[in-house]
Design brief:
single chain, methyltransferase, methyltransferase activity, globular, 244 residues, alpha/beta, 7 helices
Length: 244
Amino acid sequence: MPGALVAFRPGCDDARVVTADGGTPDVPEGEQRRAPAAVVFDALGAAYERAFAGSAAHGRSLAWLLGRLAPGSRVLDVGSGTGRPTAETLARAGHQVLGVDVSPVMVELAARQVPAASFRCADIREFPLDEGSFDAVCVYFALLQLDRAGQTAVLRRLTRALRPGGHLVLATVPLDVEAAEGVFLGQPVRVTSFPADALAAVAEGAGLEVLERTEDLFTPAHPRAVPEPHLFLHCRRRDAARPA
């Protein structure tokens, strides 16, 4: 279950995190509990990046997106993790990248490693997103700890944040599971996902056209890892996204 499993509940309770522009993330008053994925990815830190650095399919997906972006495009990276490879690759190509992740440790790492991008420690369900404000959105394995209704709602919200004709790249572990208990790189997790055809239908229902679909089997570079099926959907927002 890779790719910055973002917990979609406010949980950034570490005010020491510094964003790329020198600010600090807002911490909801009275929010003391840690979000489940924040706990997981705070614990993993840079080990997560090392485990998935060898994903050739992820690299090909980024190349697909880069080939469709105009110079200086605005890109939202959901579940940005350590900033590598997604935000770093896009920023190096001259694009304006905003990464959002629930893990304070990941945001701190990303801000340090990819200073050309901006990062926010936030819940993507609640993070302000203006209609049509991004040329592209990346969602690499970032929805796996949401239930299916939540994943559907977030995809609709992210589609609305795209300009008409803008691109969205969505990757997941395509399994027919709901609230499945498991272990990810030594950390206990609870995961929900869709089979490949069902996720493609969710994307279409959100107002996206699936232009390309690829599948891969990848084994993370970690002693506790097992081979994982990976699905990449390369999409474009239709002229008018459907309402939530």
